[in-house]
Design brief:
By secondary structure, this protein is an alpha/beta fold. The protein has one domain: 3-Layer(aba) Sandwich (Rossmann fold), CATH 3.40.50. It has helices spanning 68-73, 82-91, 104-117, 131-139, 185-190, 209-218, 245-250, 255-263, 314-327, 336-343, and strands at residues 11-14, 17-19, 22-24, 39-42, 45-50, 121-125, 144-149, 169-173, 199-203, 223-226, 265-270, 349-353. Helix 3 runs parallel beside helix 4. Bound molecules: S-adenosylmethionine. The site of S-adenosylmethionine (SAM) has 22 residues, from helix 4 and strand 7. S-adenosylmethionine binds at residues 98, 100-102, 125-129, 131-132, 148-151, 155, 179-180, 204-207.
Length: 364
């Protein structure tokens, strides 16, 4: 355990201003007066997020993910929080393990993105057993969903796929599969069936994330959540290892792609995990080589500060224990299932893309 009991962790931003926990860039300052990159630091957390490429932790502009803690834990007039609502949804998820899909951290990120963007359409690439579809629908009963997956039957022995009963969901699965890039974006826009400007694309298909981001940008999509935002050197598939925003922003071999992406986004933010890796110190499992999981000995120099610090603050420990108890999870995370719930984290990120004039489109 770290030895800073009950210290207050306050986000600090250099050369920017801060409203609550929200990042506000100093874009009003003339560029010549902004010396060096903006950066974001957190008390008692080693990582520094820079507003530039070539570093392990990048941030840009303003995203609701920067403000995730407050959005989840602020009480409304009835004393309820978004976390309360999420826990009810999470408790009732169709597959409690979701072996090859999202767990608490990523489900919270997806749920928040839908709540905040209020998209008219979510295009979900990679459905598997339908658990992520369930969270999208739970976040918004009025959003259209295109649920895309080439397989008829879920992988990882996950049983039957959860099928949304809403008529607002179109399943492009199995025989009806159409790849994200092959949807008739232009035709649907022309017919007024979709509005790319208010569409969220959720990428969880382990394909080439960068090409998919650059591709849907051509159709005018403005919001993307990338679930498997693997770190440099990590990934479950060949494409995972050479295509995520986090890799493009850091790897010298992808400098062209990283620069292009950085210059063509309004905002980039990684969603904070609920609790830090140190909460899994009782777990002795080895680190998964592909990545996607935090372990207690992580140095935490390349991920954003968690929402709660039960290791530092008593009130956060109470909240953590409440969340774990509500979901029937052992907070020591000693057993594999409990560990997987809280430590599955792959830097899931939100990108707000620039509206693209065609001349700026990326061509390799
Ligand atoms: C990690 S799973 C998705 C998990 C799901 N989003 C969840 O959180 O429960 C990845 C899925 O991507 C699917 N997939 C593979 N190629 C795809 C493609 N071209 N388009 C969409 N999905 C694809 C696989 O069949 C698999 O079901």
């Amino acid at each position: 355990m770290e030895s800073h009991p009950f210290l207050t962790a306050v986000s600090k931003i250099d050369q920017g201003t801060q409203t609550g926990a929200q990042y506000v860039s100093s874009s009003l300052a003339p560029p010549s007066l902004v010396a060096g990159p903006k950066r974001k630091t957190w008390d008692n957390w080693p990582a520094i997020a820079y507003e530039k490429v070539g570093v392990p932790l990048v941030t840009k502009g303003k995203s609701f993910y920067h403000n995730a803690h407050d959005l989840y834990f602020q009480k409304d007039a009835n004393g309820k929080t978004l976390m309360d609502e999420f826990l009810e949804v999470y408790k009732n998820r169709p597959d409690p393990v979701n072996m090859c899909g999202i767990r608490i951290n990523h489900a919270m990120a997806l749920f928040l993105a839908v709540k905040q963007i209020q998209p008219t359409l979510v295009v979900e690439s990679g459905v598997n057993a339908g658990v992520s579809t369930y969270f999208i629908r739970a976040a918004s009963p009025i959003t259209k969903i295109f649920a895309i997956d080439p397989l008829e039957v879920p992988i990882c022995n996950q049983g039957d796929r959860w099928i949304d009963s809403s008529r607002l969901t179109t399943n492009y699965t199995g025989k009806k599969f159409v790849d994200l890039m092959d949807l008739d974006w232009k035709g649907m826009v022309a017919k007024g069936e979709i509005d790319p400007d208010s569409t969220l694309v959720f990428i969880d298909d382990h394909l080439h994330a960068f090409k998919r981001i650059a591709g849907v940008m051509k159709f005018g999509v403005r919001h993307i959540v990338v679930e498997d935002n693997y770190k440099y050197g990590e990934g479950a598939t060949m494409d995972d290892k050479r295509s995520t925003p986090k890799q493009m922003f850091l790897g010298k071999e992808w400098k062209k792609e990283g620069d292009w992406l950085f210059n063509n986004i309004v905002a980039y933010a990684e969603f904070p995990p609920i609790v830090p890796p140190i909460m899994a110190q009782a777990n002795t499992d080895e680190r998964k080589r592909a990545g996607g999981f935090m372990v207690a000995v992580d140095d935490n120099t390349d991920i954003v500060s968690p929402m709660l610090r039960p290791d530092l603050r008593e009130e956060d420990m109470k909240l953590y224990k409440h969340i774990a108890a509500t979901l029937g999870i052992d907070p020591s995370l000693k057993d594999k299932m409990s560990y997987m719930q809280f430590m599955n984290y792959n830097q899931i990120c939100h990108l707000e893309l620039l509206p693209m004039p065609p001349t700026l489109l990326y061509e390799k």
